[in-house]
Design brief:
Blueprint (H helix, E strand, L loop, with lengths): L3 E3 L13 H20 L6 H28 L3 H22 L2 H12 L8 H16 L6 H31 L1 E4 L10 H13 L5 E4 L2 H10 L3 H12 L15 H17 L5 H5 L8 H34 L9 H13 L12 H16 L2 E4 L11 E6 L5 E10 L9 E6 L2 E4 L2 E3 L2 E8 L12 H18 L21 H7 L5 H7 L11 H9 L5 H21 L8 H12 L15 H4 L9 H19 L4 H12 L7 H9 L6 H6 L5
Parallel strand pairs: 1-9, 6-10
Antiparallel strand pairs: 2-3, 4-5, 5-6, 7-10, 8-9
Helix pairs in contact: 1-2, 1-3, 1-4, 3-6, 4-5, 6-10, 8-9, 12-19, 14-17, 15-16, 16-22, 19-20, 23-24
Length: 677
């Protein structure tokens, strides 16, 4: 049967902030009415029970998605006010749905009925996931404990949002005007020009620095002025804390303690003695100890090499600059100098070859060769900023599979970092119509300056590929049930597989020829430059590895060890983890944790290890392309059919084994990161 794809794109220009809250009230009232009707049915089928609720909640998600997204990328007082007014209402509604006993009983009845066996795999998985989520939401709790669960959920949604706001506000609050250009010695020309442009926009004389990542990176890596490096390092690493130059009103310390305490209490209510144990219920791993063992095994492999790398860096600084010791704000600076000495290459050398205008269409071509898809720009689309473009993705048969918005460049009032988010989920509307998935792809890349195009570092190109991998997972799904379509329903520690997998093409000559070309001449990356870059690929890879292990162990420990009557001391745990795996001594004022949005405001609580866990899968998956050819269409199709199209319909390990023909091995990761020996 042929189906017609429909795009229910968000309407950004039509969004009226003044009526968001009243519109939400209407959606929630309709939802409560429908759910009461569904719960009163006798022996409902999928079509009578699951489908109407799915349709309603899809409509609610599509209403809320542009509000939530714009709050992250175009933050303003008016939008923030509307968003904050709605957040507790949404949290209350979703908790209510998770604790609805009638709905739970009807879903269980469907699971126990003969009709269940007639359902598709996606529908069966949706029912099973829903029953699990009912249990984890406290559906079986007595009324008093359900009430407390609700209170915790509301409070957590408020605290986590406030955490995010504090990071954004403290980042926006810091600026430094440089009036003597010699202070910017060593900083790349494009960054100096951008600082000049920034000052001019604010009618100031000089060069204006801020904490947007491209600026921070340019100063911390290249500025010869150690005082300036220390100042920007301090500002960046004390955001949302009581340290450094920031207003203390943005301090996240008390919020973090309360977030942890409430997570522990929430877990205890539904029968878990730590939040980490509750968290792994929806992951591939079996228990928190398995995670800790995995991380410590990686640390044991990486630490000797990381210590050696740190010693080499210290000796290099001593020989070149008479430095007896290195501070945290010196590391990136001397690392770049050492990379130049050892491999005759700096991070800046590749930048002229990666104009965004070449890298982005080149990335589309890489994906086209891998998966047989075509990506085209959607003309005259409704977008929220001049930088934003909308694209459509069609498969080899010409069928529209999905769309995505790209918002690539750093700017004020935009959350830092890079992420993919769901705008619209794939869903079968009826026998003849499919709602196509739509994604938001957001980065904070170096913007264009003056008459020059946006020139990207190789690292930024890799970030683009990473987020696009997430986007493909969402858009190429062929699953029609939204709760297990795309990234939905995928175990959280497997969700990074497609994103980290796609990064590999940023290192391959065949792919690089598609994504690079000198912004003035169009020349491809010269062979000798590429060889130097590839030789430098694993420069300090062990130091980078232990840094990620530090974040992951810290996250898992605070969520494993925090007890109802015995909260953990967050700083102390971080100090202990650093003592165990770090090779770089963090200054006492460093408050990295106060800006760790992944775990305190995002979905990675007791799940940050997912990056390393999924890297084992992604390295092993890419090894198949190394064996067959990096653009082998058959292998690309197999990856698409076994991983990208399947969403959360089967366990991630089963899908991986279907693609690879065996269980994953750690060997490829160790080889790719230069730790195999």
């Amino acid at each position: 049967m042929t189906t017609t794809p429909v795009t229910n794109r968000p309407g950004f220009k039509a969004l009226d902030y003044s009526i968001i809250e009243s519109d939400l009230d209407e959606y929630l009232a309709r939802g409560r009415k429908l759910v009461a009707e569904l719960g009163a049915q006798a022996d409902p089928t999928w079509d009578q029970l699951m489908e109407p609720e799915e349709a309603l909640h899809d409509e609610l998600a599509r209403f809320w998605s542009p509000v939530s997204h714009l709050n992250s990328v175009m933050n303003s007082d008016e939008l923030r006010s509307a968003y904050n007014a709605c957040l507790p209402k949404l949290s209350e509604y979703h908790t209510e749905m998770g604790q609805n006993e009638q709905l739970y009983k009807k879903t269980q009845a469907l699971r126990d009925s003969d009709a269940f066996n007639q359902l598709s795999e996606a529908q069966k998985k949706t029912v099973d996931n829903r029953l699990r989520d009912f249990r984890l939401s406290g559906v079986a709790l007595p009324a008093e404990k359900q009430k407390r669960y609700m209170e915790i959920s509301l409070r957590l949604s408020k605290l986590q949002n406030k955490f995010s706001e504090n990071v954004l506000d403290s980042s926006n609050a810091w600026e430094k005007l440089i009036t003597d250009e010699t202070q910017l010695s060593g900083v790349p020309e494009h960054a100096v020009a951008a600082a000049k442009e920034r000052a001019e926009k604010k009618e100031q004389q000089g060069w204006l620095l801020n904490l947007e990542f491209p600026t921070y990176y340019a100063v911390i890596t290249f500025a010869d002025n150690e005082t300036l490096r220390k100042e920007i390092y301090t500002a960046y690493n004390t955001r949302a804390s009581d340290q450094g130059p920031h207003d203390k009103k943005y301090d996240n310390a008390e919020l973090m303690d309360e977030i942890l305490a409430l997570r522990v209490e929430k877990a205890a209510l539904v029968g878990f003695d730590s939040y980490a144990k509750l968290s792994v219920e929806t992951k591939m791993v079996e228990n928190p100890q398995q995670v800790v063992d995995f991380l410590r095994d990686l640390a044991a492999r990486a630490l000797p090499q990381a210590r050696k790398e740190m010693q080499e860096l210290t000796e290099f600084a001593r020989e070149t600059d008479n430095r007896e010791s290195l501070n945290a704000w010196d590391l990136a600076y001397y690392s770049d100098k050492l990379r130049q000495q050892r491999y005759a290459i700096s991070e800046e050398d590749l930048k002229p070859y990666f104009p965004a205008s070449k890298a982005i269409p080149g990335m589309f071509e890489v994906v086209s060769r891998l998966f047989g898809v075509t990506i085209t720009r959607v003309e005259n689309s409704d977008v929220w900023h001049d930088d934003v473009e909308c694209y459509a993705i069609h498969d080899g048969n010409g069928t529209l599979r999905g769309e995505f918005y790209m918002d690539n460049f750093a700017r004020a009032n935009k959350r830092g970092g890079a992420w993919m988010d769901v705008a619209v989920s794939r869903r079968r509307i009826d026998d003849k119509t499919i709602q196509v998935p739509i994604a938001y792809l957001t980065c904070n890349l170096t913007p264009p300056v003056g008459n020059d195009p946006a020139l990207l570092t190789h690292n930024e190109v890799t970030t683009l590929f990473h987020e696009f991998g997430h986007g493909l997972h969402h858009m190429l799904t062929l699953v029609d049930a939204p709760e297990v379509a795309g990234i939905s329903g995928v175990e959280w520690d497997a969700v990074e597989l497609p994103s980290q997998f796609l990064e590999n093409w940023c290192w391959e000559r065949e792919a690089l020829d598609l994504i690079s070309g000198h912004y003035k001449t169009g020349e491809k990356i010269p062979e000798d430059l590429l060889e130097r870059a590839q030789r430098a690929k694993n420069f300090q890879s062990a130091m980078q590895m232990v840094r990620q292990l530090e974040f992951s162990l810290f996250d898992m420990r605070i969520h494993s060890e925090s007890q109802p009557e015995k909260p953990v001391d967050i700083q102390q745990v971080l100090n202990e983890v650093r003592e165990e795996v770090a090779v770089v001594k963090a200054p006492s004022f460093n408050r990295f944790q106060n800006g760790f949005s992944h775990i305190f405001a995002g979905g990675y609580a007791a799940g940050y290890f997912s990056y390393k866990w999924a890297e084992v899968l992604s390295a092993d998956a890419f090894e198949k392309f190394e064996e067959d050819g990096i653009f082998n269409r058959e292998t690309g199709t197999a990856f698409m059919q076994n991983i990208l199209e399947k969403g959360g319909t089967s366990e991630a390990m089963v899908l991986f084994e279907n693609f690879r023909g065996r269980k994953p091995k750690i060997d490829a990761l160790l080889r790719h990161t230069g730790l195999a020996a």
